[in-house]
Amino acid sequence: MKTRAAVAVEAGKPLEMMEVNLEGPRKGEVLVEIKATGICHTDEFTRSGDDPEGLFPAILGHEGAGVVVEVGEGVTSLEVGDHVIPLYTAECRECEYCLNPKTNLCQKVRATQGKGVMPDGTSRFSMPDGTMIHHYMGCSTFANHTVLPEISLAKVRRDAPFDKICYIGCGVTTGVGAVINTAKVEPGSNCVVFGLGGIGLNVIQGLRLVGADMIVGVDLNEDKKSFAEQFGMTHFVNPKKVEGDLVAHLVELTGGGADYSFECIGNVNVMRQALECAHKGWGESIIIGVAGAGQEISTRPFQLVTGRSWRGSAFGGARGRTDVPKIVDWYMQGKIDIDPMITHKLSLDDINEGFELMHAGKSIRAVVEF
Ligand code: NAD
Ligand code: AHE
Ligand code: ZN
Ligand code: ZN
């Protein structure tokens, strides 16, 4: 079939709208009509050329929601008409990783996913001239239709709006999940969140949900303050307005250091600040931000010797097929907010505007509706 897609033809170039060829689902695969997709900073990270795993041409996008149109041979858990959220972290429920309760990082399709192909080693997408187009993060939601492995789809309730729940495909689950699944933050904790964008705001609402006490937000963009307050931030710090050392300021503000800190930017210098503002003896710092090729983190080992822990979180530690339907329920029950974070709605033709809004710090999430 043919479908409309925004194609990343080359690193650093705007996406190009075109009609692409899409082959139907093979064994264990599912064809999905994408109804809406968010634009995450990770899409920009790859588009810009910073991603060491980035491949071109590719159809980016990994924060979508849609409807099953066709199922391939052997697919048993989904049928035509089911509403689904694509998962960049699959859940096969049988690999060594899925069987270990300490991780959500299913590896069943991860190697081929990283090469921009389906598990059989081939792509379903091609350009009008027949050139192969890579899949992205196993999702490719910047296309009106896409093909995914069955294990990379979470089946969700049919009454949930696509233009909101697409955000659960990455940002919401990443932020809320980092608090609940990765850090396991206890009620009454004092926490610091670096970066109040599409991920950081969801960390903040996760902290409110679990009953954190002090929720300090740190961002260079003053406009993010009022957004973050809506979701539970109790104190705002703009590093540009702090006289002297930011870490010392945060340690003092939190009465000795954060019980938990979260880096939601992808800046290795901020990652160090996030670790070092954690409380001596027990503070944990969670890295969520993704840093560009060649970048490394550093600190004095003494920071760890004296009881701070440095950890990371992917997709909020969530097991997608199991946890994503529950997060959709939380949204429908009003336990978590999504609507005010969707600051812009665009058509696929205007998707590059979404990247410009992100750069200008004007959007939290721009969502493309098909
Ligand atoms: P975003 O662009 O919406 O937000 C980033 C925020 O950081 C902005 O508000 C910006 O003003 C602020 N910021 C930038 N530099 C800063 C600095 N030096 N100090 C303080 N604030 C600063 O991005 P997002 O969509 O929220 O994504 C954030 C990061 O999380 C990205 O690196 C993204 O790739 C990553 N991410 C990781 C996962 C995961 O599973 N680990 C999932 C989604 C996104
Ligand atoms: N390709 C990058 C790594 C990118 C990365 O860390 N991705 C996160 C999800 S970001 C979603 O917005 C993730 O899930 N990582 C675990 C994994 O298996 O990719 C690089 O640096 O190579
Ligand atoms: Zn993302
Ligand atoms: Zn698995």
Report what the structure shows.
The structure is a single chain. This protein is of the alpha/beta class. The chain has 11 helices and 17 strands. Strands 3, 4, 5, 8, 9, 16 and 17 form a 7-stranded mixed sheet that branches. Strands 12-11-10-13-14-15 form a 6-stranded parallel sheet, sandwiched between helices. Helix 4 packs across helix 5. The model has no long low-confidence stretch (mean pLDDT about 100). The structure holds nicotinamide-adenine-dinucleotide (NAD), ligand AHE and zinc ion (ZN) (2 copies). Nicotinamide-adenine-dinucleotide binds next to helix 1.
State the gist of this model.
This protein is an alpha/beta fold and 370 residues long. It has eleven helices and 17 strands. The strands form three sheets. Strands 3, 4, 5, 8, 9, 16 and 17 form a seven-stranded mixed sheet that branches. A six-stranded parallel sheet has the order 12-11-10-13-14-15, sandwiched between helices.
Which properties best describe this structure?
single chain, about 375 residues, alpha/beta, Quinone Oxidoreductase, Chain A, domain 1, Rossmann fold, 2 domains, seven-stranded mixed sheet, six-stranded parallel sheet, 17 strands, about 25% helix, binds nicotinamide-adenine-dinucleotide, binds ligand AHE, binds zinc ion
